[in-house]
Amino acid sequence: VTFDVPLACCSTISLYYFWRYSRRRDTRDLGLAGIGLGLTLAAKFSGVILLGVYGLLMLVLHFTSSRAEIEPRGSFRSGLFDRHRLLRSFSVLGVMTIPAILVVLGSYFFASDPLLYIKGLTTVNKDHLSDFPYYLLGDFKVGGWWHYFIVAFVFKTPVPTLILIGMAAVLIRQCRAPSMMDELCLMAPII
């Protein structure tokens, strides 16, 4: 049994609530996104990539949002690179990590060592041999191939799904989402 399905489900839920936050600026949505993030991190260690995705999404949200959405009324600060405004934007991620940390700690039954998750994360690849020969398309190679996951995706994905992905790639040019943030939140689960 693998935890890929719970990882995909929880990360999609988390991204959905972050998308809702980006549109409505409701802190409840941010809290629910944090809970989803925590469930993602608890489901599988590779869910940690979602932290980077959120960093990139927050940068996009910062640069695509109008000043009126982020800045309080009467503020004289201006410019996208204003450090106070940028700090305020990224404090949103800090608020979101609070429920995420609580969920992760709860998944470890609030162990006496609060760094137990970090220790587990560092031991994920400890038992892999660096000179292990990897197999792909009838050939063995030490170190693997850069295109391994692309080939595996094409061979393992059902043909109807590949057709739908191709149709979506063609149609995305014709049917644009209302904002760049909408498109990025839809594409983020691909990672």
Walk me through the structure:
This protein has 191 residues and is mainly alpha-helical. 63% of the residues lie in helices and 4% in strands. It has nine helices and two strands. The chain has helices at residues 4-24, 27-43, 49-64, 67-70, 83-107, 116-122, 148-156, 159-171, 180-187, and strands spanning 133-136, 139-142. The protein has a two-stranded antiparallel sheet with strand order 1-2. β1 (133-136) and β2 form a beta hairpin. α1 runs antiparallel to α9 (180-187). The longest helix is centred in the middle third of the chain and has 25 residues, at 83-107. The relative contact order is 0.12.
What's this model, at a glance?
With 191 residues, the protein is mainly α.
Topology:
Layout: H1 4-24, H2 27-43, H3 49-64, H4 67-70, H5 83-107, H6 116-122, E1 133-136, E2 139-142, H7 148-156, H8 159-171, H9 180-187
Antiparallel strand pairs: 1-2
Helix pairs in contact: 1-2, 1-9, 2-5, 3-5, 3-9
- Uncertain segments: 67-77
Give helix and strand order, one letter per element, not per position. Answer: HHHHHHEEHHH
**DSSP summary, beta strand count:** 2
Ends: how far apart?
21 Å
- Classification by helices and strands: mainly alpha
> Largest sheet, described in full?
2 strands, antiparallel
Given the C-alpha coordinates, what overall shape results? globular
Cα radius of gyration in angstroms: 20 Å
